[in-house]
Amino acid sequence: MNLVNDQTLASFRCFSVISWNVRGLGDPDKCKLVRNVFLNANPVILCIQESMLSNVDFFKAASFLPPGFLFASSPADGSRGGMITAWDPNVFTLKNQFCKPYTIACTFTCNLSDLDFSITNTYGPSDHAFSLPYLQHLFELPNLIPGPWILLGDFNLVRQPSDKNNGQINSTLANAFNSTILQLCVSEIELSDRLYTWSNLQPFPILARLDRVFTNNDLNSLFPLTTLSSLPRPTSDHTPLLLTLNTEIPKAQILDSKNIGCTTIASFPLLLRAGDRFLILETRLGKLSLVSSRLEPGQRSGLGVPGHRLLSLTIVASSLSFLIFSKKTETFHSKNFRCGKLLEKCCSSKSD
To answer: What residue ranges define each of the domains in the chain, with the CATH number in brackets?
Structure first.
């Protein structure tokens, strides 16, 4: 066990989790490819689906896991399924676990802080005749898992037509999936850099988003800057996903006429101050949105807006400088300029 000093304890505000349907770990050469992905990404928790292994001993685990990782596994049913959840024992201690036909649920205590949370690794049935019983199983999980919770894996279900490149979905199952998510009181972490996570690897492929990450409100409160991105896929027909959990609040940067020329549209989202109004501008899929909020004096020091998630980048700026910046660089589309007009109106109005 590594010794943890006070500085390490204080700075432990960010860690990562990988979720990946590897499509079998029986081939030693494939195990090396999988292991290299894990070593390069340096996660502290791994959630593997479709190991296709009926038994996982420590010798086999060493062929695809980072050195020293401990693990819990669920055996495959013949050539189908099999799940593994692995973790770095220098960072986490397993507090509790249980395995069900479609899930491995683990509760961890962090060795570097007072953090306790649960993570459920899931692999949904590829035979959709079993999808509704699977969703019923997911629905029952919160009764067994209190506190901060991550639900992730290959669900083998889509939520909407845009989750497939051909738009062809089973609407009944999609509606049932969405209803289950709503009843679980979890929110999906949006994948930031791609639309699909699975391909049938054909010359004219069918693409779908089958792999997802959900978190509950308790987890979101602890890690307000959580992000989800993809990793390179050297094997398998699924893309590995990297979940980064972060509690560190970024330092504010003052934007004024002296440094405005070197700032680009990539600096969004912005937090602008106009009297006692705080105005959030953020871009999603190229569209700019504006939210106005009035803060009490005691809330201003935190630079947060009640009811809104902490932003990935925060900049406190004068609204007039922002308007000069947006007009000078012409970075806005015409339909988005109305946000500037709304901002100007908010700034010109007198504070109550």
So the answer is: 6-246 (3.60.10.10), 253-348 (no CATH)
